[in-house]
């Protein structure tokens, strides 16, 4: 039986991925230090959907599916020997690595959060790579990166999957004509937050270890995930996925859907001219399985897939939801440093060639997410909605002024 260790398997993407793989017949283990739950305690926030403890979740999964998922309570960034021993004894064919601090606003709040995000994400990734070199068992790493590594300026091209083919001027020939050398380089990174910076740095770690130690590595550049439930998490309330709506961890589309249901104005930052890439949570889990089943060979360069379904402008999303629900749109101050407007075209040819027919944003698909919000809206805390983490002293929080 093929086996997969899911680092960060208690999180928003990791939990439904672990269940999906288990349902598909993989032997699955989860490693998590529950830091995401501790951050909720730190910030006074919490998932809108009432998630059960990791142990209850795993018991319910065993009850409904007959499958067992093992859990290892471990800090990937801080407990190298524990990580090494866990990988050695679980002996996976693939390690899926979600175990990073993933909120851009949280990473920008203060020096403590910046330093934590750098330490947690970079050391976690590096520990994993060192452990795999030490074990020397040809274990495939599938890492969740972000489309944010490409930056959000207008590139003027369709952003390729990780690499850019360039011609470098090397001189002139005897007739004075320019000579060029062809190269394929990592697409130049342009991170927009300390969190995105860690994903950019992860890319170099992967490039180095793929080259030097021939580790087989796939890096998935994922867009903003929307939706909550997947085929497996719907099977029982005790398996429900988390739904973040707060100013730090709530992502834009889920926030707008939540705001529409509870009667809060849709908080569009600045002009809303920012264009971003999106993917539904059900496709996240499908893509990860496709990546697991199609590993690179040892010695290959890092395989990079853009894990996105489509791109959309924030303002257009808000208008779509406002038209559907009657919600009011509030153009609030932008707490972030980002271009007021950008165009974004992004290739997703690799996943399409593997058979992915992605779920696209359509009004009728928002129903389920809105039902989840409707069902649990008594748990909503209006104080948590404002985006208060500022990128610089010159920015202002994204607060609706009545
Ligand atoms: P999440 O915060 O819900 O889950 C991350 C999980 O990793 C949590 O359960 C957390 O406790 C765990 N974790 C963090 N640091 C750890 C450590 N040092 N040791 C052990 N466990 C640790 O985040 P998510 O939304 O599920 O994102 C998962 C990955 O996908 C992240 O790397 C993120 O950058 C990437 N991603 C997410 C999105 C999105 O929209 N959610 C989009 C693109 C990429
Ligand atoms: N935005 C609003 N109003 C809001 C919230 C956000 O206008 O209420 C805007 C932001 O200013 C930004 C865009 O929406 O322009 C996206 O913000 P987001 O919070 O939805 O997403 P982001 O911070 O980019 O991060 C999320 C995940 C991160 C992942 C990333 C993919 O938290 O883990 O890496 O999406 S990507 O955006 O492609 O980098």
Overview features:
20% strand; 36% helix; 12 helices; binds nicotinamide-adenine-dinucleotide; alpha/beta
Short description:
The chain is α/β, with parallel strands linked by helices.
Task: Explain the overall architecture.
The chain has one domain (3-246, 277-308, 343-361): 3-Layer(aba) Sandwich (Rossmann fold). It is globular, with a radius of gyration of 21 Å. α1 (14-23) crosses α9, α6 (111-135) packs parallel to α7 (194-213) and α8 packs parallel to α10. β7 and β8 (178-186) form a beta hairpin. The chain has helices spanning 14-23, 35-43, 54-65, 80-90, 104-108, 111-135, 194-213, 252-262, 281-293, 314-325, 349-353, 367-376, and strands at residues 3-7, 27-32, 69-73, 94-97, 140-146, 158-159, 163-172, 178-186, 217-222, 224-226, 266-269, 275-280, 303-307, 310-313, 329-332, 345-346. The protein is 36% helix and 20% strand. The N and C termini lie far apart (58 Å). The strands form five sheets. The protein has a seven-stranded parallel β-sheet, sandwiched between helices. The model has no long low-confidence stretch (mean pLDDT 97). It contains twelve helices and 16 strands. With 402 residues, it is α/β, with parallel strands linked by helices. The structure holds nicotinamide-adenine-dinucleotide and sulfoquinovose-uridine-C1,5'-diphosphate. Sulfoquinovose-uridine-C1,5'-diphosphate (USQ) is lined by residues 102-104, 146-148, 223-224, 251-252, 255, 267-269, 272, 274, 276-277, 314, 334, 336, 338, 387.
């Amino acid at each position: 039986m093929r086996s997969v260790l899911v680092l960060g398997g208690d999180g928003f993407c990791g939990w439904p991925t672990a269940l999906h793989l288990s349902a598909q017949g993989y032997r699955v283990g989860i490693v998590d230090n529950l830091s995401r739950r501790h951050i909720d305690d730190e910030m006074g926030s919490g998932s809108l959907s009432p998630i059960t403890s990791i142990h209850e979740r795993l018991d319910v999964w065993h009850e409904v599916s007959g499958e067992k998922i093992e859990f290892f309570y471990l800090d990937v960034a801080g407990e190298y020997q524990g990580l090494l021993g866990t990988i050695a004894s679980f002996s996976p064919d693939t390690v899926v690595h979600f175990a990073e601090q993933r909120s851009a606003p949280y990473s920008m709040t203060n020096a403590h959060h910046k330093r934590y995000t750098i330490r947690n994400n970079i050391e976690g990734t590096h520990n994993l790579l060192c452990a795999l070199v030490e074990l020397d068992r040809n274990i495939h790493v599938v890492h969740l990166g972000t489309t944010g590594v490409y930056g959000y300026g207008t590139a003027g091209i369709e952003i390729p999957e990780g690499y850019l083919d360039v011609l470098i001027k090397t001189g002139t020939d005897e007739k004075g004509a320019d000579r060029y050398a062809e190269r394929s380089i990592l697409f130049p990174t342009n991170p927009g937050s300390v969190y995105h910076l860690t994903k950019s740095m992860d890319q170099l770690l992967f490039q180095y270890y793929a080259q030097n130690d021939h580790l087989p590595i796939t890096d998935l550049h994922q867009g903003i995930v929307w939706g909550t439930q997947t085929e497996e998490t719907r099977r029982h309330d005790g398996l429900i996925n988390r739904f973040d709506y707060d100013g730090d961890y709530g992502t834009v589309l889920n926030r707008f859907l939540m705001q529409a249901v509870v009667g809060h104005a849709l908080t569009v930052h600045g002009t809303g001219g920012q264009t971003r890439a999106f993917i539904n949570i059900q496709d996240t889990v499908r893509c990860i399985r496709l990546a697991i089943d199609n590993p690179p060979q040892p010695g290959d360069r890092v395989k990079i897939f853009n894990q996105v379904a489509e791109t959309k402008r924030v303002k257009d999303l808000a208008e779509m939801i406002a038209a559907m629900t009657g919600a009011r749109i509030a153009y609030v101050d932008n707490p972030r440093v980002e271009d007021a407007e950008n165009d974004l075209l992004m290739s997703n040819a690799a996943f399409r060639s593997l058979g992915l027919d992605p779920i696209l944003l359509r009004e009728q698909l928002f129903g389920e997410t809105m039902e989840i919000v409707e069902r649990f809206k008594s748990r909503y805390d209006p104080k948590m909605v404002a985006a208060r983490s500022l990128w610089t002293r010159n920015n202002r929080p994204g607060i609706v002024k009545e």
